[in-house]
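Hi support team,

I'm opening this ticket because the web form for multi-chain structure prediction keeps timing out on my end. I have pasted the exact lines I submitted so you can reproduce it. The total is 867 residues across two entries, so I didn't expect it to be a heavy job. Is there a limit I'm missing, or should I split the entries? Thanks in advance, R.K.
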Amino acid sequence: MKKLFLTALLATLPAASAATLVFGNNGEPVSLESGNITDGISILVQRQIYDTLVDFKNGTTDLAPGLATSWSSNANATSWTFKLRPNVKFHDGTAMNADAIVFNLRRWWDKADPYGFRDQGRTFEIIGDLLGGYKGDPTAVIKDIVKVDNMTVRVDLNKPSSVLPNVLAAGYFGIASPAAIKKDGAKYGTPASKAVGTGPFIFQSWRTGDRVVMTPNKSYWGEKAKVDELVIRNIKDASQRLNEMKAGTIDFANDLTPDSLKSVQADKNLVAVKRPSFNVGFVSMNNRNQYLKNDKVRQALSMAINKKAIVDAFWNGLAVSNASFLPPVLAWANSSKVPADYKFDPAAAKKMLADAGYPNGISIDLWYMPVSRPYFPNPKPIAEAIAADLSAIGVKVTLKTEDWAKYLQDRNAEPGFDMYMIGWTGDYGDPDNFYGAYYGQNGSSDISWNPPEVQKLLEQGRAATTQAAKAKVYAQLHELTYNAAYRVPIAHSQPLAAARSYVKGWVPSPLGSESFNTISIDGKK
Amino acid sequence: MGSYLIRRVVRTLLVMLGISLVVFVFVRSIPGDPAVAMLGERATPEAAAALREQLGLNKPWFFNPANPMDAQYPKYMGALLQGDLGSGLKSNIPVISELKSRFPATAELSVAALLFALVVGMPTGILAALRRNSGWDNLATGISLVGVSMPVFWLGLLLSYFFAVKLGWLPPSARLGYEYTIEPVTGFYLIDSVIRGNGGAFWDALKHLILPAIALGSIPLAIISRITRSSLLDVLGQDYVRTARAKGLAANAVTIKHALRNALLPVVTVIGLQAGALLGGAVLTETIFSWPGIGSWVYEAISQRDYPIIQGGVIFAALVVSVVNLLVDLSYAALDPRIQYN
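Hello R.K., no limit was hit. The queue was backed up. Here is the completed structure from your submission:
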């Protein structure tokens, strides 16, 4: 028996294929059900399994054909028609057609849809956020979803929206197999079920807390995967992601801390990969505060912060300073009449504060988040640096923080924070996705400033059908918000990713996740 | 003995009931709302309110005058009595199935950590007691002090960096390399790989277990070492040991036969107490080592305010600690004939 056991121990060698690609994800996906997630960790996994109706060109936020080969709207952008790609099958062999698309869109949008499983805890909250609400809601963007013919779907809107294709291209909206959803019911998307899409990788298993394993889809309509197996591991801790990469137990990973850059560059087996920036970290000032409701005070504070020095000190050069509220790829929507943001000028700031009636300075609270976010990798020292800059013009700053979930809640609850750090990562490449989140009716209520002209411009922006027309509208919004100076952009960060040197063809998307079908393993692992 | 057991089981059930109520109120009293945590930066007050309603979190906690059963606690308890702990708020994964797949991982890690703590802690404690005030004793004291005061996550990262990155001897994290799969039988990888006759997976699982077990075992090791030392010193000063020595028994025989067995009692108590501490330590250790157990899962749930997962995790942890303490109390009787349960 003992001998048998030993023989068994010695005889079994790993049976893994040479071309297994291993990615270190920032944690465990919440769910593999498309339309019902909001976190980047889940999106990253879903991007491999599902296609979206519209896609993005590699490494950009420009639209490209996905499951729809073309799309067009009527003149005032209140109705969009999508022509579908023929001969595409889901991984379970069922056909991708208009019925399948309508099935997916309806279960997200119609609260009464029998396959939405809302009685069992499904929420699809991203629809409420990006598309104004659900079927029948007064604020909902979508009025109806119609099958025109077997390969054509039409989406009718309650109000003009030129960005519907961009929204539907976002990683939340992967198209899943209706047959698989009907088969697994409310279990769909959990580890006990198989996620079925049309994407470049086929889901094999999800070992809870540990990894998701996929194999290439040999009959994929687009660029076919170049590896034999894809393993996505959950590695929550950023230092451990780096350790794993250095040890060669994973091949590539996202969101390393900016201070790991040197360590990555010093390792000949690793290559630093910079993701194009598509986020903004900023400081917001609250109109309810007795000092901050004064325009001049806000402008003085905006001039007092040395953004470039902060970016150099805390991002290791992995960020863009001196930029507007919009990330660099959306710079076309900025005005040429005002600078991107306030120039650092402490002397002018001090004078402006005196002109505002506070020659002896003021006292305010500055809140910073207790967690690392992609746009503020280490909030506390950044907050300290901002406080030091402000104290140089006579502003006494009290630094405050609290638990992240509470922080997010309290900033919007009366009276809110005086000044606080927050940010945004874009879902799709349109200025509305940034401005709309923090200004106007659907925006955050953290600064208590919501003039009608801002709302009007936001609506004009959503209705504008060409980039030139959009640029005109958003330039006005840029001027208006620049002069109001309620939100001070600090940086657009480029989250640091890295890969082992044999990983070729990885094109990081500014949106934070992309399909790994372009990646090959070149040479020996 | 039988009636004692029944009493203990009933008491445990009452404790569980109490814990379910306490944790239910406690998680809902933590400031910060699950809907807001779920939405992150998107959490406008309107969006959060709509999501709360969808999740049923706007219902009264205990009593709904309109419909007595339509409140959160009665619903939760109704399901609990049928063995249903609910599902993750956002993931919709049943808490029970998650516990089933994750508990073996935590148990395997905790047992390994405890074994490491005992195997290293007891001998150092014994030696420290026998060579009192020697260099060895001081060294053992120093090691214990470091073990107790070094944060587990820091130690974990150091171990990972040194043994995995620098030396390349062991994997930095995870429970098993991607080359292997083990079809679960007991859920313990070391046992299952042997049952399945998969030697490669056995070694791989063992290699993955070493570093997290050392990190998690560092605090119990220090405590066990100190308790062993003081308890043995205490026993060595007792009359019966002096008598044994006076009878001319060899020093080793006295130590091993007479003193050690009696000195073990407090050590067993500490093991019982450490069961809770291990589950607590597992939270950090599992997070650092990407270990797919209960600790990392509950940790994530707390930051996300995922009520059903936190409740399920805490109730289950309480059950584990209760059972371990029952076993400890029963092993007393085996170790010390003066103790009897009736």
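A quick check on our side: DSSP finds 16 helices and 21 strands in chain A. Let us know if the file doesn't open in your viewer.
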